[in-house]
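Hi C.,

You asked whether I'd gotten around to modeling the 338-residue construct. I have! Everything is below, sequence then structure, no commentary in between.
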Amino acid sequence: METKILPVTDESVALAKEILLGGGLVAFPTETVYGLGADGTNGDAVKKIYEAKGRPADNPLIAHVHPDFDIGKLVYVENDYALRLKEAFMPGPLTMVFYSRGVVCKEAVCGGDTLAVRIPRHAGAQKLLRAAKIPVVAPSANVSKHVSPVTAQHVFDDLAGKIPLILDGGKSDGGIESTVLDVTEKVPRILRAGLITREMIAAVAGDCEIAAHLPGDKIRSPGVKYRRYMPRCKTARFCAEDTARAAALYDRAAEEGKKPVILCESGAKARFAGREIIDLGGSGEEIASNLFAALREGERRADLIIAIEPAGRGGVYDGVMNRLCKAAEKYEEGGFSH
């Protein structure tokens, strides 16, 4: 199968609509990462997503709709705070999990009774969703467990020959996936941290909890059960204060003939003078925006990535740390440890 990369135009969106309504797959841009979309009402089409990605069959998908779509056709909106959150943060990088009306197929929700719904802010995504007029279910458009894609080229690198079309909407500026929020109970619960923070949600809803993800819990969100975001080379993680050991590992690897690279925030660069560095940026938002692109650059340039955790905590940093801890193994004396 030939995989085309086309800019988002009326013509390419018409082609994408034809593919989706015909039961095929289309990769498309959002403000967080690129998604791999299928008609959410077509079980056979949704199965193709799992096949193309090599995605576990018990990992549910998110339904994407345009801003004027009546989500009440897909889900039961039972709590008033959910409407306030929708008004405050949608379109945007927030996904809310409701009880499903069963319109989106069982393959997309993995047989569960809830559905995750998102309204992307990206103009290209909205153009496609308005044209298609269907709920488009989509995970990130990459091979399962690999680093999520934030450019059309990243998608092509992973899925060329497996899908017919990638809509190119430029680099995703958010950089990490949406916050996923369970709104089925009286108090909202974050299932996956992202760009919409606990503090932001609580300011609108009155309160916000963080899900513990205990064994036996129903899986209502992608990104909570399996390790993912992993580069295709060894990736070591050090805490922000542990730069001396990180530098020592770099030097030892270089002496052994390996190609190491340091991944760190701007404020830590001076501690690694004379070494190859990929700068993640200075603020939580910059680090979130740059993280996946930096991990992909690291795997291209090096055979050992040494990732330094940012010093900040809370807010957007929760989402950054969620991804970084899954992407990189913590390095202890004598080797790696999760």
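If it helps when you're writing up: The two ends are 38 Å apart (CA to CA).

Thanks,
B.
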